[in-house]
From TrEMBL, chains A, B, C, D:
HAMAP family (alphabetical): Glutaminase (MF_00313)
Acetylation as UniProt keyword: yes
Protein name: Glutaminase
EC number: 3.5.1.2
C-alpha cells in the first residue's frame, strides 16, 4: 500500500500547474499550489501516508459532513423537514433552485443546505463552534485542531453570496436564527485547519458502521452511517458528484481548500489533498489520485 | 430468502391503493393496480420469486439501461461528448436545464439523455428496434420478449413533450437523425413487455462484472459495469435518486410501468414490480419492498 | 370631470371586498380596506378629487419613481451601467433572473433595481432619507409629508427577501454600500405617507415636460421625462405592466399600499388609491377606475 | 420631412458594417448588407421615402402583427385564453419561461406566442397562407405582395427550435393543430416579401384608429387598435422593447430581415429597413434612424 501511494502521487503530480487555487478570499489564494498529500486509514487502525499528509489545510466544505453528523445525532430524521437529500444539478452556490423550490435546499452539501444545518445546530448548541471543534478533536484524535480565524474572518467579509442564500431561506420561513450569527459559525467550521491524517482518522467511523475506534465513540448507527455515505455518493462533490461516482465509485466529500475524503465502506478512509482545483471546484490532482487508487485496488462500491 | 420475499410482499401490499397508476396514455392506465411481484436472481443462477413475478409489464424507462449499454458497447467513452453522467436535479422531462445547458442532457436516464442515446444508436444500427429486442432476448434468456405495439403507438400519439426535447437538442446541433424516426424507436424500446424474472435475468451482468452467465456473453468490462451502476446510483430514479440511495443504498433503475431493478454488486439482481407510482413516478410498493429487503439483508453498498 | 370621477368611483366600488390588502407586514394589513380615492391634477393647476383623495397612505413602490428621478438628476445616463430599462417578465421580488443575469437588475421598478438605485443614491447623498423627504415635500407642495416610521421599522423586520437580493447583487459586485444601511433608507422611502392629492401634484412634472409648475422646478429635461415615462409604461406595474398598457394605455406606477399614479403626457397626472390588491399586487379597484377613466376620455397614449 | 429623412439616413449610414445580417438560414444571409431605406406614410395619404424604400425584403417577425390582427378580427378577446399580453423578459425563442408557465406564451410577439396565434388562425381559415397574403395585399395596396418560397422552405428546414416550442405547448394542451402544418404556414407568413413603402401603408390603420384609408377597411376598432399598439410598445422588439420605448418612444415591431415599423398614433406610420442586426436581433441602423427621427420631431408618445 505504501509503495502504491508513493507511485500514485508521482503519477498525478504533473497535474499540478493545470488547476487553479481557490482565490475568492486572499487567505486561501496564498496557499502554495505545489502541495500534494494522501492518507489511508484502515478500520484496523493501520495508517499509510504519502506526500504532505501531515500539513494542515483549510477543510472548507468537508466540514459540512461534520455538521450534518452533529445534526443527525441530536435531531435524527427530523432534519429532513427542513431540507432534502437529493442531488441538486446546480452549482453549489446557486439560488435559482432554492427560489423555485420555496427555500428548501436540495441537500446538506450545497451551501444552502449546510446553512440550514448550521441553523439547526445553532438552535441546539449554546456554543456551536466550540461544540464542533471539540467533536472534531475527539474524532481525529488530535487535540490541536483549531479554527484559522484569519480565514474565518476573510470568509465573513466575502459572505455576500451565502448571506443572500440565508436571507432567501429566511424569507420562506426556513431559517430561524440571526443570519449574521449563523454565518459567523458556518465560516468558523469551514476554517478548521486539519491534515490528511487528521481527516482520514476523523471520518473513519463512516467506513466502520458509525464506530470511531480510537475515540471509542459510536458516532452514528450503522443505518445512519449508510445514509450519510449515500448522500456523499450522490451529492458530495458539488456539481461533479456523478463524475466522481463514475470515476472513483466511492462516497466522498470535497472542499475548496483542495481536500477530498473518500470512504471504502467496511475497510478504509482516504483523504487526499492538493490545493489546485478543477472547474467544478474539486481538487484536480486529488480526484486523479483517488481514481487511480480506486481502480488499482478495485475499491468501487459499484 | 424465499420466505423473506413472501413476508416482504405481505408487508408492503397495504400500500396498494395509495399510489397512482401512470395514466398519461390509456394503454398504461388500464393495467390492474393490485399486482405485485419480485424476483431475485443470484450470480450463481439461483432464482427466487414471489407474487406476480412472471407477469409481463411495460418496462418503460428501464429500457434506458439497455440502450445505454448498447451505446457503450459500440462507442465507449465517446458517447460522453453528447451528454453527461451527472444527476439532473430536475423532473425527468424538464426542458429548462436542457436549454440553459445548450442542449446537452445531464445523463442517459432522463428522457432527453435517453433520446440522445437513441439518436446515437440510430446512427449505428440498421434496425435499432430489432437490434434491441434481440439483445434483450439474449440477456433475459426469453426468446418471446416482444414490443407491445399498442403501447408504442399510444406513446407516439402522446409524443409532444419528448418531441419538444428532441427538437430542442436538434436546434443545438445535438440530434442527428430524423426526430420522428428516433421517437418511434425510443417508444418501441419503452414498450418492451417483460416480467420481473425476465428483467432480473437480463440485468444480471451488472451484478457480475459485466458477464451474463446464462448467455455466456461478456456484455461490458468490469470497469464499464461499475460505471453504469454508478450512473444508476446517482440518476436512476428520476428526481428521487438521492432518496433511493438513502433508503435502499443500491444502484437501481425504475420505469413508469411500475418496475424497478436494483443491483447488489457481486451477488444479486433484484426486480420488483407494482404498477402504482408515487409522486416522483416510482413504484410505491416497489420502493418500499426494496427498502425492507436491503435493510433486512444489509445489502446497502454504502 | 368632477361628475365623471364620482361616477367612476361608484362604478368600481363594488370591487371592494374582492381583493386582498397587503398583509406581509402588520402595519399594512391594518389599513381599512373600504377606502377609495382619486385625484386628477391638470398641467394648468386645476385639481379634481373624489372619495378619499386627501387620506394619506403608504406610497411603497411608488417611491421608486422618486428615487429614480433623483438618481437621474445627479448621475444621468451613467446609472444604466448598473441596471437596465427592460421589463423583467418575473415577479417583482424574484431572484432567478437576477442570478442568471449576473446581478444586474432588469429595471429600476423591480425591487432589485430599486435597491441598486438606493445604493447609487446612498453613495451620493449624506442623508438620503432627508434628501428624498425634502424632494417630495417640494414636489407635492405639502411640507408635512413624512415617513411613517412604524411601517419602515416593520418592513425592516421583514427585510429577508430584499436583503437576499441586495447581498446577491453585492456578490456580483453590483452593490457598493452597507446592505443594512441601504435597506433602512429604502424602507423609509417606501414608508412615506402621502395622499392621492399629494402624489398627483408630486408627479405632475412627468406630464409637463419635466417642469413642476407649483414648485417652479425643472425636475428633468423633456427627453428624460419621456424616458422615465417609457420605463413606467413598460415596467411600472410589476408583472402586469403589459396588462396596464393594454387596459389603461398610460405610463403608470403602483405600490402595494394600493396607490397607482398614471401620466397623461402633456395634460394630466392621475392618482388613484384603494388598499385591496389583485393577484399581481396592484390595486384592484384602482386599476378598474383608471381603465374606465382612460377609456371614457380616450386618454390612451397608443 | 423629405430633407429630414435624407439627412437621417446619411447620419446613420456609418453604422452599416457594425451589425450582423441574420445568418441562421442561407437565404437571409445572402441579402446585401449595405441597404437602408425608410418610408413615412401620413394618415392623410402623404408618403415620404428615402434610400431603398421600394426594395422588398423578408418581413419575418413583422408578420406577427398581421397574424395577431387577423386573430383579433375573428376571435376578439377570446384569444387571451391561450396567451398573454405581458412582456417576457426572455429572448424571443426561449423555452424556459414557456415551461415554467405551463405552455402559455407571454405575448403574441415572441415566437411561442406567434405560433399559438398561427394555431388559432389555422383552426379558423381553410387556407391560412392565402388568407394572410390577400389580407396584406389589400392593406398595402400592392397586389404583387408574395411569399418568397425559397425562404419559407429554408426556415422550415431549420425549424427545430420553433418545432420544440410548438410541441412543448402541445404537451400542455395549448396547441390544437398538426405541428408541421402550422409551422409551414407560420414560415410562409414570415417569408412575405415587402418594401418599406408596402409596410408603412399596410400598417397605417394602427396610426388611424383602425381604419385603412386606401382600402376603405375598418380593420380594427379604435380600442382594439390601441390595444395592439400597447402590445407593440411593451413587447414589439424582442428583449429590447424597453430600450426601444426609452430611445424611440413609439409602438413598434421588428423582424430579423432588418425591418422595423413604428406607429405615431393619429399621425404617421414609419417603416425603416437595414439588414444588419444588433445583438438583440433588431436592425442596428433602423433603430438609430427611428431614434433620431422621433427625437427630432418630438414624436414620443410619452
Amino acid at each position: 500500500m505504501q509503495a502504491l501511494l508513493n507511485e500514485i502521487l508521482d503519477q498525478v503530480r504533473p497535474l499540478i500547474g493545470k488547476g487553479k487555487v481557490a482565490d475568492y478570499i486572499p487567505a486561501l489564494a496564498d496557499v502554495p499550489a505545489d502541495q500534494l498529500g494522501i492518507a489511508v486509514y484502515g478500520n484496523d487502525g493501520e495508517l499509510f501516508t504519502a506526500g504532505d499528509a501531515h500539513t494542515p489545510f483549510s477543510i472548507q466544505s468537508m466540514s459540512k459532513v461534520f455538521s450534518l453528523v452533529q445534526a443527525i445525532q441530536h435531531s435524527g430524521e427530523a432534519i429532513w423537514e427542513r431540507l432534502g437529500h437529493e442531488p441538486s444539478g446546480q452549482p453549489f452556490n446557486s439560488l435559482l433552485q432554492l427560489e423555485l423550490e420555496n427555500g428548501r435546499p436540495r441537500n446538506p452539501f450545497i451551501n444552502a443546505g449546510a446553512l440550514v444545518i448550521s441553523d439547526i445546530n445553532q438552535s441546539r448548541f449554546a456554543a456551536p463552534v466550540l461544540s464542533m471543534r471539540d467533536f472534531v478533536r475527539r474524532l481525529s484524535g488530535n487535540p490541536h485542531v483549531a479554527v484559522d480565524n484569519r480565514i474565518a474572518e476573510s470568509e465573513y467579509q466575502h459572505r455576500a453570496r451565502n448571506a443572500a442564500m440565508a436571507y432567501l431561506m429566511q424569507s420562506f420561513g426556513n431559517f430561524h436564527n440571526d443570519v449574521e450569527t449563523v454565518l459567523r459559525g458556518y465560516f468558523s467550521h469551514c476554517a478548521l485547519s486539519m491534515s490528511c491524517v487528521d481527516l482520514a482518522k476523523a471520518f473513519c467511523f463512516l467506513a466502520n458502521d458509525g464506530f470511531c475506534k480510537h475515540s471509542g465513540e459510536q458516532v452514528l448507527s450503522t443505518r445512519q452511517t449508510q445514509q450519510v455515505n449515500s448522500i456523499m455518493a450522490t451529492s458530495g462533490l458539488y456539481d461533479e458528484a456523478g463524475n466522481f461516482a463514475y470515476r472513483v465509485g466511492l462516497p466522498g466529500k470535497s472542499g475548496v481548500g483542495g481536500g477530498i475524503v473518500a470512504i471504502v465502506p467496511g475497510q478504509y478512509t482516504i483523504c487526499v489533498w492538493s490545493p489546485e482545483l478543477n472547474k467544478a471546484g474539486n481538487s484536480l490532482a486529488g480526484m486523479a489520485a483517488l481514481e487511480v487508487l480506486s481502480e488499482r485496488i478495485g475499491w468501487s462500491v459499484f
